[in-house]
Design goal:
alpha+beta, 9-stranded mixed sheet, 4-stranded antiparallel sheet, 10 helices, 17 strands, elongated
Length: about 325
């Protein structure tokens, strides 16, 4: 009897403990659920207040529109002003864009509105200049510095402004030519394109015609250039295309072609060399690097000092018959290259 009573008491206590344990667990779960619920409510209220302050409703994310750019950037690239200046014009609602669908001018709402970079734009009703060309060609004369600014010498930035083409903010030179070197120099409105055109890894060809002293043995010079010529800037290679002896009449006519080359103080014309009876030769070469005075150094170290040097091709862009000191925009075919 006593044993069975003790067993019943123990069983009751066990059941009681189990019930209490279950109740404690349920309370804990209930409290956790309540905390989670209230946290969700608070998060929802916070999100709701934020969306209300930004205009109400669920926040919408604009999809990127390929080929479109901020209006202030497009205006700045066209030389209208700095980004802050163009932003001010846009906020004042002074800029309009031509809508080809309606055939009407539509006001641009603000600096962040996206427009096509080739859109026709208007400032206070007057049409603005179009976008700068991707590539601009220039036939550089002698004694023009390949820089956009200089206090004492004629420079490329000055030439752009003289022809009233584009501001120095729009275009920049692709590489450089020596002060005495003439010929093709490119301008670009794209930094990425400039990097691609100049990086040695791309192996882009530049073709030069050099007038040198002496009669040139074509086979010997070709072998030297193919093997590489040691210069102060390192060993450089070139491809020899052709060698042409120069007659006195050809040399005289070439000296008179370029009005920019009549600077007596700086001129290194061939007249004094011809008077001494020195033979002259035109040498056409191709290089893929652009080190300082590289072509001049190479030919001089091969025994043929350069009298005149002219670049006629950069990649697939050729100088052709572009007059000295003149500009032209690259053709679609040249840009596609």
């Amino acid at each position: 009897m006593i044993a069975s009573k003790c067993c019943r008491v123990a069983a009751c206590r066990s059941l009681s403990c189990a019930f209490l344990s279950y109740q404690a667990g349920s309370n804990a779960i209930y409290r956790y659920s309540q905390r989670s619920f209230h946290a969700s409510v608070r998060a929802g209220e916070k999100a709701s207040s934020q969306s209300s302050s930004s205009g109400g409703g669920v926040k919408k994310y604009r999809k990127k529109q390929p080929g479109l750019f901020r209006a202030d950037k497009v205006l700045s690239n066209r030389g209208v002003g700095t980004r802050s200046q163009t932003s001010k014009l846009l906020r004042q609602r002074r800029i309009a864009v031509f809508d080809p669908d309606t055939g009407q001018r539509v006001g641009v709402k603000g600096p962040s509105e996206k427009i096509h970079p080739k859109s026709t734009l208007y400032l206070d009703g007057k049409e603005l200049p179009g976008p700068p060309p991707v590539i601009l060609l220039y036939h550089k004369p002698k004694y023009v510095l390949s820089a956009m600014h200089d206090n004492s010498r004629s420079h490329l930035g000055e030439k752009l402004e003289e022809f009233n083409l584009f501001s120095t903010r729009d275009m920049h030179p692709v590489g450089r030519l020596d002060y005495e070197t003439t010929g093709l120099i490119l301008f670009s409105s794209s930094g990425d394109l400039t990097q691609r055109l100049l990086h040695p890894r791309q192996g882009i060809e530049k073709e030069y015609v050099a007038r040198v002293e002496g009669m040139v043995d074509e086979d010997i010079l070709r072998n030297k250039l193919n093997c590489g010529v040691q210069t102060a800037e390192g060993v450089h290679k070139a491809e020899l295309l052709e060698v042409t002896p120069v007659s006195v009449t050809e040399s005289s006519s070439r000296d008179g072609d370029n009005e920019y080359e009549k600077d007596i103080e700086n001129s290194d014309s061939t007249s004094s060399i011809e008077a001494d009876g020195t033979d002259l030769t035109d040498v056409r070469v191709i290089v893929t690097e652009g080190k300082h005075r590289m072509v001049r150094r190479m030919l001089a170290n091969c025994g043929h000092p350069v009298i005149e040097l002219k670049r006629e091709r950069h990649g697939e862009v050729r100088l052709k018959d572009l007059p000295v000191g003149e500009f032209r925009a690259a053709t679609e075919k040249e840009i596609a290259w």
